[in-house]
Specification:
- The protein has an eight-stranded mixed sheet, with helices on both faces. Strands 3, 4, 5, 6 and 7 form a five-stranded antiparallel sheet that branches.
- The mean pLDDT is 96.
- The longest helix is centred in the last third of the chain and has 19 residues.
- The protein contains ten helices and 38 strands.
- With 687 residues, the protein is of the alpha+beta class.
- It is 17% helix and 35% strand.
Length: 687
């Protein structure tokens, strides 16, 4: 089946770069311009969306998937609660609300009271509640407002008892943690300088700094607590120890989890600063402290991480190993109720372990099954904690755990419109091109006949980020219709620690692509699917993955859906947060790295005249993480290349960003379009 589509006539210009003696044509450079300020780009977006929407409207699966995904989304969802001052704060969505609502309970099982309902903030539901944090006594709550999916945040403060919003407003906040002073007088946050007019969604992010905002003051009076003007590329985040005596600042330059640690003594009138970990060579995350004894998770001499203690009062900052490295990857730890609670990942499945502060292992927390855990925060002197548990066919449930005993009880669990027992989750292992053993999850209906099925293969493979089992209502709709869903846990991710990450980045980035191609070949070899029934999907770095493997093996896939992908590997570092990614990709300014990037950059390696799979590029006009120019240029080049007769389209969402804060109705519509497109080109019989 082929489709002849009349794509917009996208102008080609004479933009050329010469780097390291190599001349690179960039005919679609003008599509990097901001759609909000360049009428040419705005008109192009409208024209491309018109072609895409007209095509998607012809697909029989579009309305069917939208209706079923809407039904599947319509279930009550809870977030992990946070306890402060005896109150419990948590997110809740009744089902189809565009944005979850922040609630508070005065007691654990008391009646919830709505504190913040972002659904009232905009007509289109695209203004979202971002981060939020109650003060230590639970009397005040800082929260952030996210417009149209952007990374920028505006900070507000609310009085919990009255529900009144205070006069405090803090702007130009991005990539920030938040930390309340223990006495509730104000909070620490991170921000960038105000960008040039009209440049907020493209300007490079430089000169991150930490400030203290005193309640009731104008932002102009905020105290700059920490900055590195001589090193403008550093980012800084701050946290306060449970005892309120120390402010710990973690500084980094890119996406690598390599930090420099600066400690500020808040009991000192001069707020004395001391660097306790130099050089940004290792991962450090604070688990807690007992006076001057600090407990850290680190990969120093331990690529899968360990827990150490450090005497920050001593001039030598003497260290002691508390919990040694394990075969499993240590993802994080905290001191809760006087003991260390550590979350591990073993073969992409979570474990929760308990240790004394001296490192003696106690019984593990018994989890409900094979899946993923998040949460596990709490106070050092209170054994109560909460965590969320999920798996591919198991919607997220919230558990309350008594860390003193390790016993868990259900705090909130959803009722859903399908039976999770109808689905089988299998973990398989395949061999990549260089002999590396790579895990994969395969999920589908138990009653599917043993024959090749339309299959959606998902991958990420970057930035030390694992892809563990997780529930998505939209995927149930795909599997209900007879499809199989698979996740390849390829190198570049964090599934097996630093070595796994290093094996798929920089000069080793091709390993990520080889792993994903091998995953596809494995699914075909096992008879799970065929090239004519295989669609691939990935977002952000996963969008890069999809774009790269389609160029390298266009014969292997029936359809490809790259979402908010990094597609121009020679200019990614020129916009917003792109400069951080040189840790994973290398810098285009480095000659050796340039050669590697040039060899796989999706935009630069499209094969004119080749028979490409059907491609649906998905992006959004307010994405200031991976600017939409990446996707715009890529699809323009693909359409120009006449790479086969299958459709090569782009779906550009308005008032949406990189993913976070996206309203429910937009998420449903996007998923329906992707599944309808994949179903059409994998031969799914929708009845």
């Amino acid at each position: 089946m082929t489709e002849k589509l009349d794509y917009p006539d996208t102008a080609r210009e004479d933009a050329v770069d010469t780097r390291h003696g190599v001349t690179i044509a960039d005919p679609y450079r003008w599509l990097e311009n901001d759609v909000r300020s360049d009428p040419r780009v705005a008109d192009w977006v409208k024209a491309e969306n018109a072609v895409t929407d007209a095509y998607l409207a012809t697909l029989p699966g579009r309305d069917r998937f939208k209706a079923r995904i809407t039904e599947l989304f319509d279930f009550e969802r809870f977030g992990v609660p946070e306890r402060k001052g005896g109150r419990y704060f948590y997110m809740h969505n009744s089902g189809l609300q565009n944005q979850a609502v922040l609630y508070v309970r005065e007691t654990l099982n008391g009646e919830g009271r709505a504190l913040i309902d972002p659904n009232t903030w905009s007509d289109d539901g695209a203004t979202a509640l971002g981060e939020w944090l109650p003060s230590e006594d639970g009397a005040k709550l800082l929260y952030t407002v996210q417009e149209g999916g952007a990374d920028w945040r505006t900070v507000k403060v609310l009085d919990v008892a009255t529900g009144e919003v205070e006069r405090d407003t803090v702007q130009w906040v991005k990539f920030s943690s938040f930390a309340w002073a223990k006495n509730g007088t104000g909070f620490f946050y991170s921000r960038f300088p105000e960008p040039a007019e009209g440049a907020a969604f493209q300007q490079l992010n430089l000169h991150h700094a930490i400030y203290f905002h005193r309640l009731g003051d104008d932002q102009s009076a905020d105290l700059q607590v920490y900055a590195t003007n001589d090193r403008p590329r550093l980012n800084h985040v701050a946290e306060i120890t449970d005892d309120g005596n120390w402010l710990l600042i973690s500084s980094s330059e890119g996406t690598d989890e390599r930090y420099e640690l600066t400690l500020i003594d808040l009991t000192s009138p001069k707020m004395t600063k001391r660097i306790i970990a130099r050089g940004m060579e290792h991962h450090w995350s604070l688990a807690g402290n007992q006076g001057a004894t600090f407990y850290f998770v680190t990969d120093q001499n331990a690529p899968r991480r360990r827990i150490i203690s450090m005497d920050v009062a001593s001039s030598t900052r003497a260290q002691r190993e508390v919990v040694p490295q394990d075969e499993a990857v240590l993802e994080g730890a905290g001191i809760i109720g006087g003991m260390l609670v550590a979350q591990y990942m073993h073969d992409v499945q979570n474990q929760v372990r308990r240790y004394t502060l001296k490192g003696k292992r106690l019984d593990d927390v018994a989890l409900p099954g094979i899946g993923s855990v998040s949460g596990l925060a709490g106070d050092q002197d209170n054994p109560e904690t909460f965590y969320a548990f999920t798996s591919f066919a198991t919607p997220t449930s919230i558990y309350r755990c008594d860390i003193a005993t390790g016993e868990s009880t259900v705090w909130a669990t959803p009722e859903v419109g399908f039976d999770p027992a109808d689905y089988a989750v299998e973990q398989l292992f395949f061999t990549s091109k260089d002999g590396t053993r790579v895990p994969m999850f395969v999920v589908g209906r138990r009653d599917l006949p043993p024959q090749p099925a339309p299959t959606l293969l998902y991958g990420y493979g970057g930035f030390n980020i694992p892809v563990p089992p997780a529930f998505a209502a939209s995927r149930i709709a795909w599997m209900e219709a007879g499809g199989v869903f698979a996740v390849a846990n390829i190198r570049g991710g964090g599934e097996y620690g630093k070595e796994w990450h290093d094996g798929g980045r920089l000069a080793n980035k091709q390993n990520s692509f080889d792993d994903f191609i091998a995953a596809a070949e494995f699914l075909i070899e096992k008879g799970i699917t065929t090239p004519e029934k295989l669609a691939i999907q990935g977002g952000s770095n996963g969008g890069l993955l999809v774009g790269a493997v389609v160029n390298q093996r266009p014969d292997l896939f029936a359809a490809a859906i790259p979402i908010v992908g990094v597609m121009d590997m020679l200019r990614f570092d020129q916009f917003t947060a792109g400069r951080y990614w040189v840790d994973d990709y290398g810098s285009p300014g480095d000659e050796a790295a340039f050669g590697i990037l040039r060899a796989y950059s999706p935009y630069h390696n499209i094969k004119p005249g080749a028979a490409y799979p059907a491609v649906l590029v998905v992006t959004a006009d307010t994405d200031d993480r991976v600017v939409p120019g990446h996707s715009f240029k890529y699809i323009a080049a693909l359409q120009h290349a006449k790479a086969g007769d299958k459709p090569h389209l782009i779906r550009i969402e308005t008032r949406a960003g990189h993913g976070s804060g996206k309203p429910t109705d937009k998420s449903i519509a996007e998923a329906a379009d992707m599944w309808a497109f994949a179903a059409q080109w994998t031969g799914m019989q929708l009845g």
